[in-house]
Amino acid sequence: MRVDDLMLFALVVRLKSFRAAADQRGVASSVVSKHISRLESDLGTQLLRRSTRKLNLTEAGELLYRHCQTLEQNVEMASEELSAYRAEPSGVLRISAPGVSGQLFLPKVIRRFMARYPEVEVDMVIQDRFDDLIEQGFDLAIRTGTLEDSSLICKRLVTSCWHAFASPAYLQQHGAPQSLEELAEHECLLFSHQQTGEADWPCISPEGETSVRVNGRFRANSLLALCEAALDGMGIAFLPLYMVRHERASGDLVPVMESLLYRRVGIYALYPQSRYLPPKTRAFIELLEAMFAEEEALFRH
Question: Is the pLDDT of residue 291 over 80?
Fold first, then answer.
């Protein structure tokens, strides 16, 4: 039994005519007759008594028509709700984000988003580990770095550049390293969550892009903690430019070996594949792209 046959049966009964139902559907009367015959065959009972002048429902037809009316009402309600769902973002948007993006950039995106869409609530979870997005109930995740193959849709938002930084006080006391060999003699602040080894910093050598082994007695899984440690003169930290834009402008942190020590990583939005992306998710991604584009220079210079 096909839903389309049921809906066509209800239309025939309501219009009291095969021809009128065919005209409304834009098909031949024979097509309507074929669908009704198939429905009767599927149910094993006669639904309509047809004469040259009128249609009459059988007892089974009357029973089925009552159920078809309920079906039509449910379809209409679903269509109305989905139209509203497509039109205006609403509900709770759950976001997974890493520390730097979640604490330094996303709050102003969320502030603008919530002002624009008053029917949306936002629940953001700060976590650097990559959990199963769908299993954990997130609508989207923000991730930085090299991403593994995934069934999720992955949209690049911006390229983030990183450099080594230290405070003037540290450099005055210990001197500024001038080569990769000298860097090994300095106290470096290690990010224990980075994808490659915490003591391996990306660099440029005569052979091309490579990494240099550094040493340090302080490690943390928080870039914010490493930034504070660098400001306190504890050593040299490898940090995103966006994160230290104010400290760099004020001179509280200065680049170290800027032409040699740097990396570029992508910041991405990840979300489940779906033919119809929920309006709240689609609207937030569009705003994310726009705001990252507005401040792209701060991630690179």
Answer: yes
